[in-house]
Write a structure and sequence with these properties.
Number of strands: 39
Largest sheet: 7 strands, mixed
Shape: globular
Number of helices: 2
């Protein structure tokens, strides 16, 4: 895919239609692309989220499990801390948490990728091994083609070297009449019952987002289907599409080629215009190669999201070792490009998440991979803590700048819930308007993360309950407005609604992963998730604090809270 700007906000993303028909969606800083840092500033670097030792990172590419090793590829600038000079970085792990960085897997070296090796996916061919499909940029006008790379030695579990055969590439080019500069990011392939492989490639027609479908009998010669598998008007360019089955029952993941009546399918697209993603759940009709979304969520900008915060260009893969599907997503910085150059790095990957279909069959749920728990160190616990209106209680005894927190809040009545105004359908606007300080009925209540001792800085993650016409609406917020005294930062109010019935169970649970410049939160068992990037100036390392709070008139009880200091993951 093409790069984000340094802030994840649509109003600063450049979107220009040039006179020659080429579209550009990112800011480029040629004078900074190859500015290599003399040293890396570790002040806000993460302890257990994935990031390379230095420089710029963006999209996760082609994650896979092969011969007992997890592989993560990613868009990477080996020469600087802003977007440019993009190669496929490559790291390996045995547990998804501790990583070893290898030499880049792919870098521009051929006419078909001379101007860039952009995003793609990996597919493991039965009896043959893995292959990579990726987008190559062929000229300065950003015309894109799809290319194939194969391991130089499939017996090497680290897959350190990859070949890009001239005789095969490019394997897919844009047909006549298609805009070659909006034609990228091939998906993992799936094998149909007719013996043909299929992939999707993101694109657009005017303002309509499109997932083109291609078929192949031998994985080398690909033919475009007469119609896209799906499209949606007024969504713009679909980057990094992802398409996979989910089981109707249980949490087990499925291979991408699984197709029968026991599954639904998920289509996820990253929206270049808005810089966030949305997904739908629906039915894939193999003999027609069509995908029909269920009418349980919007098929567009207002649709369901994996994450309502700083999370983009996600990619999933099936992990056969534990029968699970795992999602990776990129979280960009929210500071300035000058800050990134000074500190010598930019971008992280969110914690890998297991994903499955909720029992309602109306949405997905996500949860950090279980391996993360191995980093848990010192534990503290809080039980039956009453929080009256205006209460702030510190959670002491852990390293609050690098922590994992799980908490369940309860309340006895919903009578004091505020009336919900239908004009508040935009959760982010509502979060920005109400915030964590504005007194409510049932809420706001939750956590104050990365807080300074006197609360000059803090990032609140909280719930607020509203009374709608026929049910209650639960707002979940991660509000960065008060996260830092630095005024030069992008400090958004991220938020989403949580689909949960409080009628018989007046409880809300929250898990937050706190990692120096990251607060990654999972609401109500992973129904609504929000990742925020923040840069405190006071709440640093041992000077960071953690609080539970309640600013609603209804008394809240912390039924059970467990918090752990987190060990630092290995990055060799």
């Amino acid at each position: 895919m093409m790069s984000l700007t340094n802030c994840l906000v649509v109003f600063i993303v450049v979107c220009v239609l040039c006179h020659n028909g080429v579209e550009a969606f990112h800011r480029i800083y040629p004078d900074l692309q190859s500015v290599s840092p003399h040293s890396v500033n570790k002040l806000h670097r993460t302890g257990f989220h994935f990031q390379p030792n230095r420089n710029w990172i963006n999209d996760p590419n082609g994650p896979m499990y092969y011969k007992g090793i997890y592989h993560l590829f990613y868009q990477y600038n080996p020469k600087g801390a802003v977007w440019g000079n993009i190669v496929w970085g490559h790291s390996v792990s045995k547990d998804l948490i501790n990583w070893k960085e290898l030499q880049p897997a792919l870098f521009p070296s051929k006419p078909f990728d001379k101007y860039g090796c952009w995003s793609g996916s990996a597919t493991i061919l039965p009896g043959k091994g893995p292959v990579i499909l990726y987008t190559g940029v062929v000229d300065k006008r950003s015309n894109e083609v799809q290319c194939i790379a194969i391991p130089a030695n499939t017996s090497d579990p680290l897959l350190t070297k990859w070949d890009k055969p001239d005789r095969l590439n490019p394997i897919v080019t844009a047909d006549h009449g298609m805009n070659g500069s909006v034609f990228r990011d091939p998906t993992t392939a799936w094998l149909g019952k007719d013996g043909q492989w299929r992939i999707l490639i993101g694109g657009k027609r005017e303002d309509t987002g499109v997932a083109y479908l291609y078929r192949s009998k031998n994985f080398l010669k690909w033919i475009r289907a007469k119609h896209p598998i799906h499209s949606a008007k007024r969504t713009g360019m679909w980057e990094c599409p992802d398409f996979y089955p989910v089981s109707l029952e249980g949490k087990n993941g499925l291979d991408s080629s699984m197709m029968d009546n026991s599954v639904k399918h998920v289509l996820k697209n990253s929206l270049d215009i808005t810089r966030y993603e949305y997904y739908t759940i629906g039915t894939y009709i193999p003999n027609q190669d069509r995908y029909i979304p269920d009418k349980t969520s919007e098929d567009g900008w207002g649709g369901l999201r994996y994450d309502y915060g700083n999370f983009y260009a996600s990619k999933s893969f099936f992990d056969p070792s534990k029968n699970r599907r795992i999602i990776w997503g990129w979280a960009n910085e929210s500071d300035t490009k000058e800050d990134d150059v000074k500190k010598g790095w930019a971008g992280i990957q969110a914690i890998p998440r297991t994903v499955w279909l909720d029992s309602s069959r109306r949405q997905l749920r996500q949860w950090p991979v279980e391996e993360l728990n191995r980093l848990r160190g010192k534990e503290v616990e809080m039980k039956s803590q009453k929080l009256k209106k205006g209460a702030y209680v510190e959670v002491k005894g852990i390293t609050a700048s690098q922590a994992d927190v799980e908490v369940t809040f309860s309340f006895s009545s919903l009578d004091k819930a505020e009336a919900f105004d239908p004009k508040w359908e935009n959760a982010e606007d509502l979060c920005a308007q109400k915030g964590s300080k504005v007194r409510g009925g049932v809420g706001p209540f939750g956590l104050l993360t990365l807080a300074s001792k006197k609360l000059e800085e803090y990032t609140p993650v909280f719930f607020r309950v509203f009374k709608a016409s026929n049910k209650h609406k639960i707002l979940m917020c991660s509000d960065a407005k008060s996260s830092s005294l630095n005024r030069e930062l992008y400090k958004p109010s991220f938020a989403g609604f949580v689909n949960v019935d409080l009628g018989n169970n007046k409880k809300l649970s929250l898990r937050s992963l706190i990692d120096h410049s990251v607060v990654e939160s999972f609401g109500v068992g992973g129904k609504t998730n929000i990742l925020s990037r923040v840069y405190p100036t006071l709440a640093l390392k041992e000077k960071a604090h953690l609080f539970v709070f309640n600013n609603g008139t209804e008394q809240i009880t912390v039924e059970n809270l467990k918090a752990w200091s987190m060990k630092t993951a290995s990055r060799n």
